[in-house]
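Render this sequence as a predicted structure.
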Amino acid sequence: MAGELAKASSLTRAQKGNGTRPVALIGCGFVADLYMRSFALYPGIRIVGVYDRDAARLDAFCAHWKLPGFATQEALFKTLPKGALILNLTNPREHFDVSLACLKAGFNIFSEKPLTLEMEDARALHAVADEAGLHIASAPSSVLGEAAQTLGHALRHDTAGMPRLVYAELDDGFIRQAPFKDWESESGAKWPSVDEFATGCTLEHAGYYLSWLIAWFGPVESVTSASADVSGSGEAPDFSSATLFFTSGMVARLTTSIIASHDHQMRVFCDIGVLKIKRAWDNAAPVRFHRRFTLRRKLIEHPFGKRIRLGGDTHPKVKRFGAAAMNFALGPVEMLEALAEGRAPRLSGDYALHLNEVTLALQAGCGAQDMTTTCNAMEPMPWAR
């Protein structure tokens, strides 16, 4: 933790040099538009440059959002102050090379998930960032959103008593039969089906709930997982199921698929009742407490859960686009605030490394495996304490 704070302090001087919060994007595909919709809620942040190796895609994106585009990655680098933040929104197989180039050029990185496709590459990025006094963080940002923070608040304040077990589902329906060829972003980017299917739903989606669990219960000690290509596509697994054992003693089951009917429910089973949420991709999804009681000698959960709310304002919300109503800028914005305040970001490099290792273990379906990385507990957002 001391090393993280030392890095934050050195970066604060670089950030304060021009009094701005410059952000650059590399990659102008489907997800980049979701980030831009979110950044529009933060007038204090300025997107100063964009690069994509596809010139036509770069032109379309920059024309839609009225942003300056650059013909090469190196040209983009030359316009940025050292210590600026670059978002790596490229396809997963490019994440390592692009993030490494950014770090070597002296920039902090926020990468779309997964951080890397190979664990040795993730370790290498972590080491380079540490040596350079830079930060590297990884999506997803929803752990900083209202729904996740509300559930975390309920756990910390014993709303439902001691938590004992978690069941989490991230099933998205039989996606290969969906009309995904018609899915298009605001600036005209097609949904990247080739990359999505090649990367696999576990690497793409498990982090949405896995990041919440690590934030609440700390690092994962060991994983027992299984995965399969049940559709017979010959590509990445389209189903995985894992039992996670946390150093804190918590146990959770996490399932992901693009086969089973849509189900994004999480249930935290506690001594007094159950905490439930049904929408992983909605920052404003209601969190409900279903108290357990006996009726005519039967133990049941109240069918109408009491909604748990935080008092006061939380964070800016975006309107639903497609399947999600998520503020994708939460992570980058918190990272910029951390640099300005001289502290470590909540989505730290250690956290990104651990999240990557656990997710890769889920994808591999390798049976029982002990984790070799760890991370500090995540502080709740100020409005969720």
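Summary. The CA atoms of residues 130 and 302 lie 49 Å apart. DSSP finds twelve helices and 16 strands in the chain.
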